[in-house]
Amino acid sequence: TMVARAGEVVAQLQAQDKSVRLSALKQVKNEIIGNKFKKQAFLSAGALPMVLSMLRTVSEPDVLVQSIVTLGSFGYGTGAEAAVLVQSEGVTALVSALSSGNEQVVEACVRAL
């Protein structure tokens, strides 16, 4: 099923290997853009809390940027989709990331917000 497949990708977000985590983030982002059914499947599989956790705990700029872009993709669309990001404190995490000293991270935050 779509949720089971999403769950496999979400599990990769917890990998020790940074390249696996980064690849999984990109896959989540690419899968959910413009597809409300896949977006819901990834939400059901627990992707949003995992991506938020990465944003809050990771220091590598490339992973931060990809997690920010992925969060923006979760929030883009209808008011209900944006509400999911607000309710999960995603907006708060994005605003906090604005204070990053990395220009790419700040630019990604501005676009996501």
From TrEMBL:
GO cellular component assignments: cytoplasm; GID complex; nucleus
Pfam family membership, one: Arm
GO BP term, pick one: proteasome-mediated ubiquitin-dependent protein catabolic process
Keywords, alphabetical: Cytoplasm, Nucleus, Repeat
Superkingdom in the source lineage: Eukaryota
Cellular compartment(s): Cytoplasm; Nucleus
InterPro entries cross-referenced by the UniProt entry: ARM-like (IPR011989), ARM-type_fold (IPR016024), Armadillo (IPR000225), ARMC8/Vid28 (IPR038739)
Protein name in UniProt: Armadillo repeat-containing protein 8
Organism (species): Chlamydomonas leiostraca
